Amino acid sequence: MDNVDDAAITAQSGPVAIGGMLRGSSVWDSWRRRFVTDAGRVVDTGNGSFSHSEGQGYGLLLATAAADRPTFDRIFSWTTLNLRIRKDNLTAWRWTGASRDSQDRHNASDGDILIAWALAEAADFWNEPTYLAAARAMTKDITSKLVKPTQTFGAVLMPGAEGFGSKERPDGPVVNLSYWVFPAFYRLAQVEPDFDWYDLMQSGLDLVGRAQFGGSKLPSDWLSLAKSTVSPAQGFEDRFGYDALRIPLYLYWADAVTPERLRVFDAAWRKGPAILRDADADGEALTEPGYQAVAALLRCSCQGARYPESFYRFSENQHYYPATLHILSLVAATMRGGPCLDHGKIEAILSHNWRPRIGALEKLTVSFTPPARPEATVEPAVGYVTPTKIGFTAKDGDMLQDADLFSYLRVIMGALTVLAGLYYLLSRVDNESSEERPEDQTAPGGAGWKPAPGQYDIVPRTLPQNPFSTSTSLSVLADEIETAAAASVRLSRTVGLIYWEFPLLVSYEKAHGAQAVDALIESLAQDFRRALRATDNVAILNRRHFLVSICLLAGRKDLETIASRLTAAARRRDMLEEDAPSLPAGLAIYPLDGYSGLELIESARRRYRELLPEAPENDLNADTSVSQPAAQPEQTRKRSKRRPSGKTHTPQPVA
Fold this sequence. Notes:
The protein has helices at about 5-10, 25-35, 55-65, 70-85, 110-125, 130-145, 180-190, 195-210, 245-255, 260-270, 290-305, 320-335, 345, 360-365, 400-425, 475-490, 505-510, 515-530, 555-570, 595-610, and strands at about 50, 95, 145-150, 155, 175, 225, 230, 240, 275, 280-285, 495-500, 535-540, 545-555, 585-590. Helix 3 (about 55-65) runs antiparallel to helix 4 and helix 9 crosses helix 11. The model is unreliable at about 1-15, about 365-410, about 430-455 and about 615-650 (pLDDT under 50). The strands form five sheets. It has a four-stranded antiparallel β-sheet, sandwiched between helices. It has a three-stranded antiparallel β-sheet with strand order 5-6-7, with no helix packed on it. It is built from 20 helices and 14 strands. The chain has two domains: about 5-365, Glycosyltransferase (Alpha/alpha barrel); about 430-630 and about 640-655, Alpha-Beta Plaits, CATH 3.30.70.270. It is α+β, with helices and mostly antiparallel strands. A hairpin with a 3-residue loop joins strand 3 and strand 4 (about 155). The chain starts with 6 loop residues before the first helix and ends in a 44-residue tail after the last helix.
């Protein structure tokens, strides 16, 4: 195996553009519905429904292949908001829902490479320089922080920026061969041409040949390079495991090796794909279709076997990892082509208009040089308009024609108008709050967040379009909250909900009637609306329950400040008992308290119930539009010992 020469193959390969391959594909629709939330989080259903940079990278790549720009932007926004928490341009490797302060900030190089690759593919496909700028920033940090020279093995890819070096582990450097995303290197060579990607690819191929352990002759997931020979790393299980399953997929996809190099994988899976350990020759069989799809690639490369019927039948009834391997195997098989592929069957999966082409980014670099950090600007929050560059197409010579001069003058005037509008937005004073919005939103419990480095720190006072209508339908309201969240996230902000109930309205209704209560509630709603901004929303649920939606929040502290201000408005209407220090407010903030509108509403309502000092005696509990929390056993319920007020108190009627 050591005498296999892959150099000729790697020298001839190029970056085949992936954009549009899955346009309109039912396979992508199934994968997206199963694993991508409305907020853009890719859910690993096999690992506690957590999310990680690898999954976000796969999601971005597949969204580009599907020409699904709205989903791409949602995934990228969620990734930026929740994983861009380091001081560099790399991403945190995992998200568990923990507070920002306690979140693990270590990165994983495979996830960073996948995200950078997807951004480059998206920049090419949608002709979008901002994606290229983000890809460049990430790729520079990948090459400078994650690639380390070794005396024996050349430049190697570290699994993360910290924790795997020779100074950090006695058996270091420690590497993981599945983190060499070989098909990405061709495209990243266009993003960062000064780096020697060929050398990095060759070191990975060399390690694949050296790391042959046990009877299977397959590499372990984690390898130690501390000595002149490769060995399994300490503290990890010695097995060809779930990580390593991707190695043959990446090798085949990149067309980076000869069939002889892949035969060791094919031979080890003589009974089908499996997790292999030295002590178990047959290993742990993997029956999911996604793992079988990777095995089909190997049989094609090594035996010339055509892909079986099951290869073309994508099933969403499998966990995230095998499902992702399956759809990636379909993409890889299509890119490679050859006699193994049934073109009639694959055409039912792929876009009919897709044709292989070599990707190019030069068209985006001629007149665009991304800064180290993007300048603060205002982006549209709802919808997206692809920037169109002004082209110069003079027919005769290099002289500008009159029509060209007129076009350029119009462009200049338009730019001046935009600058004037930006200056107007920046010069307006935010008189809605007496204190500045704090930049560091790290409230106790990690409820807040701050914009990721390089994101937009100056935002408009309102969203360009109001996502809210006057509908009181819960499903419509939930959809509108999700729209507001997506628009706010694009501006590096978020949305929050405030939920109130007013127990005093029960006695007021008995004394004055339902009509008087309705008038009082509408009057208070108007007070709230006057205290908020135009694209915030005040909804009344079941006549007496208030749900306030706030857009463009910097974090939970912002939401708490607004809740205090609205509580003061309610006090002026005598909606609180005289001895009550404040009114409990149920707060929920996206995405920490929920990803869908319904989740956020239920979270705010639940928080309100938890804060009640004493369960209302006469609560009609009429809010059936929100699912009720599960009833607690009677012995676990505790009532407040706070003395009730000796005075009777009646809300102030409408003037």
